[in-house]
Amino acid sequence: MSPTVLVVDDEAPIRSILAAYLRGEGYAVVEASTGAQALAALAVEPPQLVLLDIGLPDVDGLEVLRRLRTFSDVYVILVTARAEEVDKLVGLGVGADDYVTKPFSPREVVARVKAVLRRVREPGTPVADDGVHRFGDLVVDETRREVTLRGAPVALSTLDFDLLVVLARSPGRVFSRVQLLEKVWGYDFFGDERVVDVHVRTMRRALADDASDPTMIGTVRGVGYKFLLEPTGRTP
Questions:
Q1: Model-level pTM?
Q2: Within a domain: residue 235?
Q3: Confidence tier at 128 by pLDDT (50, 70, 90)
Q4: What are phi and psi of 117, to 5 degrees?
Q5: Are residues 87 and 196 in the same domain?
Q6: Most exposed residue of 73, 95, 181, 236, measured as fewest CB within 10 angstroms of its CB?
Q7: Are 127 and 169 in contact (CB under 8 A)?
């Protein structure tokens, strides 16, 4: 079954062009011209990805994203009219998976959609024998896509979980931002490297890992990140 992309933009010509290119690549497309329409569409039949313009006439794209994040981890690519706004969005950590600046090439947008959705289709490196990584009180279960800390579940977004898995598979190894982008976002990712920083911040927040003195996810200044915990034996 073809992945579905929800295209949200108040400009009909832009929606039509993007829809045509996406359908040409085999995607199913649903269109919405307002934030209210987008939220209604998301509630009826969740897509695999949302291409979301920020400058909507009723509810702006950031508010749509905030609301949908209360009930969905669907992939979101934000579209902004100003290049300088990307810095602000990345800094805010609004929970998007990529950013596109107008004016854009429809082919570039399709390439970014492919890069984001490819994470679902392509397996990563081999997992542990039982798919579970144990680090004392922290347990990362790849098979169930669950994380627990001191026996309590940790709520992570899809991207945060994927990023944590990459780090947890190789404790002590330093990953550059580019390497993490390649492993989690895909080799043809077009976005800003700093999106990695955003997701590390949200992971740390969920894991109660103090960024000023981390015990789980360490920052290697000028390079990237590494997982600090040592693996422990299997739990009974």
A1: 0.60
A2: no
A3: very low
A4: -70, -25
A5: no
A6: 236
A7: yes
Mean pLDDT over each residue of the chain, to the nearest integer:
84
Residue 53 makes CB contacts below 8 A (sequence gap 6+) with 8, 9, 10, 11, 14, 61, 78, 79
Query: In this structure, what token pair is assigned to residue 60?
Result: 């702006």
- Do 114 and 12 belong together in one domain? yes
End-to-end CA, the chain = 40
Is there a single domain that holds both residue 105 and residue 167?
no
pLDDT(130) > 70: no
How does residue 190 score in pLDDT terms, banded at 50, 70 and 90? low
Q: Which residue, among 108, 80, 111, 110, has the nearest Cα to 94 in the 3D structure?
A: 80
227 vs 127: CA distance, rounded Å = 16
